[in-house]
Write a structure and sequence with these properties.
The complex is a heterodimer of chains A (223) and B (670). By secondary structure, chain A is mainly alpha-helical. In chain A, 79% of the residues lie in helices and 0% in strands. Chain A has one domain. Chain A is globular and about 55 Å long. The C terminus of chain A is likely disordered. Chain B has 24 helices and 4 strands. Classes of the chains: A mainly alpha (223), B mainly alpha (670). At the A-B interface, helix 4 and helix 5 of A face helix 24 of B. Chain A: Its main location: membrane. Chain A: It is a multi-pass membrane protein.
Chain lengths: 223, 670
């Protein structure tokens, strides 16, 4: 593998981490969805480059799925959802942006510290990829717990899943069926989330999941 | 090898067939005959195969079956130690199953039927397991099947409580064992016994493993303070199951201790003996004191089991101490004594429980205060129970005496110990053990005397009748084993030699004294015991005495004296009762060891209500150990209850925090 191949793979996956951070920084839903589309397209590019470098044809399919579905279809659907709900301005963060970004930096450092020593003898490409992928996963989780809005939680989940696919693409010999099933499960999750969000909206006139909390366990308590 | 295959397939095949018959015949007449008959056959076969193994010297035989943990499989192995326990467990199980053929006909069997063979399978699997996974599977099989039989009379709230407590203790014990195996196998993670044996443990790992082993196996054996379930659960099951649980299952637990400590653990340190000695002697004392004041016959027997477990653990502790200090000969004596007492107690406790079952069936009560005068009504049971009671009270020439005598021989060898502390401790333990041995006799004089002698204390006891012949035959065989174990003690000890050779690299000297059948723990210059001679002497002297009495006594009619043999009043209530006979012990030990509370409620003046005497006893272990533990658990559950009502985001945060924490640990640990 040439230096250029390594550098480009490194650049693409590094960019994904950066975009994950950018995701955390957004305070408008529409902007966030656009950033997420960029995230997914970057994933498509990264996986495509892996397909080229590894000469693995099936990875092109994964790249295609990532690019078309996650980069175009799902963001478009989410845009439509946000428009129909009329919530394009809202984002209720739980923790402020500053502390969130500091936590994100710490998590990225942690991911590098965990992966680097553990994969000492692995292919350097896979190593870097794994470290970045873990960082993307952790940032996705961080996004899920620092946001209240159901749509931004969906976006957090999907960016987490992007990290998983990045990790999978970096490892050689990952069979296509795994990626297809992962993509499929994300699609299902998206549908479920979507339906769920509309149901929440119908019931409670908001997609702030904090509202749900009041409605738990009332049968038992008889409140 | 092929013998082992035959052994395993035949025993387990028969037992599985019995279990299937138990399921099919749940509500059918005559199913109990089939189930118990097949079980008896399988157990007898198991014991027979083990004996043949021993004679052919084919041990150790090993067998690996597919399944189980990946990379480990199901490994079975028979060595000298397994052989000893296979013979003890299966021989006693065969006799108890035979008893159950008779007893099961009138004992409502229903749920017990299918579980009984599974229980036997579990115990057999534990004895031949050669990897931790198989061992634990067998162990849990044994626990669950016996739990099911304890819970068989679930209509009774007492039995439900006993079963619940038993399940809790069994879970705790199994967890401790699981962790013990984890510590022993280390992160290499090879759970085959051969791999565990080959490992060397560093730091405080061996001590940790020892504590976990003692908790895990001790909770099943009934070691103080883990004994609280035993006096509740053992008597709650039908009597033949009580016999197996008390007589045999506790021995399987002891097998676990021996296998893990003497075989799988590295060479012991002298201070490893301390937990054995302390736990053993307090177990013996507490168990016996409770037995001395207990009114319920079966529960009394369960307490006596705890006492005997204590004696066995003391002997094991001595074996550890002697092994650690490289005193091979006394170590062999101590270990032989422990194994011998295991065999003896298995036989005599099963006999006693079977007898208690017969009494329960005949007199419809196991409350000593409602029994009495049973010897005249059920002479055969009475005579057999007398042999069992004498054996368990360690009277020569029966087997209980021989093994307890050997324990004392090991204690008398303690001055040779090079550790100052042990030289003081072991004689003190011996003194307490002597007290226990004496009190055990008192306990069984009380139990037997109240139940079988005197006059009946209830109409049911007065209407009691002898039990069926099959049960009697089984009990007679057990009583025969009690006598044979005492009279032929040197032969038994010879049979135990391969096991002690395997575990402590030493055996007793050849049992060939100047007089045949002399038990010689050390060489001939030190103390020896000959049960055969004592038996002959007792037979001859009692024959002569009775002959003399008949010869000298006059045949003339005698008039009864005015005092009427101490029973001038015809009411049976004037006799000694179980409580009154135990009263002196209660006075002496009661306030501390038994937490006795006595209350006398006098009616107010003018009232015609009777005065009342109330007596309450609790095991001090409850208030010292379990009540605080239960409070702690309750407190923690209340604290953790908050976790039940978190928001979705907080749950996610918890998971995230756990993940990050683990990753940080990974980074820092390296």
């Amino acid at each position: 593998m040439g230096d250029f191949a390594f550098d480009l793979a490194h650049l693409l996956s590094g960019l994904m981490v950066v975009v994950s951070m950018v995701l955390l920084y957004q305070d408008r839903l529409t902007a966030m969805l656009n950033v997420f589309a960029a995230h997914a397209m970057l994933l498509g590019a990264a996986v495509g480059w892996q397909a080229e470098v590894q000469g693995a044809g099936h990875l092109w399919i994964t790249a295609g799925i990532a690019f078309v579905f996650k980069g175009i279809v799902i963001p478009a659907a989410l845009h439509a959802m946000v428009r129909r709900l009329g919530i394009h301005r809202e984002i209720e963060t739980v923790v402020g942006v500053g502390p969130t970004l500091i936590a994100a930096l710490a998590l990225t450092a942690l991911a590098v510290l965990v992966v680097m020593p553990a994969t000492e003898y692995a292919n350097p490409l896979a190593r870097e990829d794994l470290a970045f992928a873990l960082a993307v996963v952790l940032l996705g989780l961080l996004m899920m717990i620092t946001r209240r809005n159901a749509v931004s939680q969906i976006v957090g989940f999907m960016s987490l899943e992007n990290g998983l696919i990045l990790a999978a693409a970096g490892a050689k010999g990952m069979p296509l069926v795994v990626e297809v099933s992962v993509a499929f499960s994300v699609l299902i999750a998206f549908i479920v989330f979507g339906v769920f969000v509309f149901r929440i909206r119908e019931r409670f006139d908001t997609v702030d999941i904090g509202t749900l909390e009041r409605y738990r366990g009332e049968q038992q308590d008889g409140a | 090898m092929s013998l082992f295959v035959l052994h395993v397939s035949l025993t387990f095949g028969l037992l599985l067939a019995a279990a299937a018959a138990g399921v099919v015949g749940l509500r059918r007449q005559g199913a109990s005959d089939v189930v118990y008959g097949l079980s008896a056959l399988a157990a007898a076969g198991g014991a027979g195969f083990a004996v043949v193994h021993g004679f052919l010297g084919e041990s150790p035989a090993a067998l690996a079956l597919p399944g189980g943990l990946p990379g480990v499989g199901i490994r079975l192995r028979i060595d000298s130690l397994s052989l000893v326990f296979l013979v003890v467990v299966n021989a006693v199980a065969a006799l108890v199953s035979l008893y159950a053929v008779g007893y099961g006909r009138h004992e409502h069997p229903g749920r017990v039927l299918a579980l009984y063979p599974l229980f036997l399978i579990g115990m057999n699997v534990v004895l031949i397991a050669d990897d931790a996974f198989t061992f634990l599977i067998g162990w849990e099989f044994m626990s669950l099947a016996s739990w099911g039989m304890v819970a068989a009379r679930h209509e009774d709230p007492e039995a439900r409580r006993a079963a619940h407590l038993y399940l809790l203790m069994a879970c705790g014990g199994a967890f401790a064992l699981l962790f013990a195996f984890g510590v022993l196998a280390g992160h290499a993670g090879d759970y085959a016994f051969a791999a565990i044996r080959a490992r060397t443990l560093t730091g405080w790992m061996p001590e940790l493993a020892l504590v976990l082993i003692l908790i895990g196996t001790g909770s099943k054996a009934g070691l103080v303070p883990l004994h609280v379930w035993l006096p509740l659960a053992h008597p709650a099951a039908p009597s033949h199951v009580s016999a197996l649980m008390s007589g045999v299952m506790t021995k399987v637990a002891i097998y676990g201790t021996i296998r893990l400590v003497f075989d799988l653990m590295p060479t012991p340190q002298w201070y490893w003996a301390l937990p054995f000695l302390f736990a053993g002697i307090s177990t013996a004392l507490i168990g016996l004191l409770q037995a001395l004041v207990e009114r319920d016959l079966k529960r009394l027997l369960a307490f006596s089991t705890i006492e005997n477990i204590g004696i066995i653990y003391v002997a094991l502790g001595l074996a550890v101490a002697f092994t650690a200090t490289h005193l091979a000969a006394p170590a062999a004596v101590a270990l032989t004594a422990a194994l011998f007492h295991v065999a003896n107690h298995a036989v005599m406790k099963s006999l006693m429980f079977c007898g208690a079952g017969a009494v329960l069936h005949a007199a419809h009560s196991k409350d000593l205060e409602k029994l009495g005068g049973l010897f005249n009504r059920m002479p055969a049971t009475g005579a057999l129970m007398l042999i069992g009671a004498a054996a368990i009270s360690a009277l020569p020439p029966l087997n209980g005496f021989a093994s307890e005598w050997m324990v004392f021989q090991a204690i008398l060898a303690s001055p040779a110990l090079p550790v100052e502390g042990l030289r003081f401790l072991v004689p003190a333990v011996g003194a307490v053990l002597a007290l226990v041995a004496a009190l055990a006799a008192a306990c069984f004089v009380r139990a037997y005397g109240i139940a079988f002698l005197g006059r009946p204390r209830s109409p049911e006891a007065a209407a009691a009748h002898e039990v069926d012949r099959v049960s009697l035959a089984a009990m007679a065989l057990m009583a025969g084993l009690c006598i044979a174990g005492g009279v032929l003690a040197p032969l038994v000890v010879e049979a135990l030699r391969p096991a002690t050779l395997q575990l402590v690299n030493a055996g007793l000297p050849a049992q060939a004294g100047p007089v045949p059948l002399t038990l010689t723990p050390f060489d001939g210059t030190r103390s020896t015991y000959n049960g055969f001679m004592i038996a002959v002497f007792l037979l001859v002297s009692s024959f002569l005495a009775s002959w003399g009495v008949h010869r000298i006594a006059t045949r003339a009619t005698r008039r009864a004296p005015a005092w009427d043999c101490g029973f001038p009043d015809a009411s049976p209530a004037t006799q000694y009762t179980a409580s009154s006979l135990g009263q002196p012990i209660r006075r002496v030990f009661g306030p501390i060891a038994l937490r006795v509370r006595q209350q006398i409620a006098m009616p107010p003046p003018g009232s015609t209500a009777p005065a009342e005497f109330r007596l309450s006893m609790t095991d001090p272990v409850w208030s010292l150990f379990y009540v605080p533990l239960a409070r702690l658990v309750e407190l923690l559950s209340w604290q953790f209850n908050i976790l039940q009502f978190l928001t979705i985001r907080r749950y996610l945060t918890l998971m995230f925090a756990a993940l990050v924490l683990l990753l940080v640990v990974v980074v820092l640990w390296r």
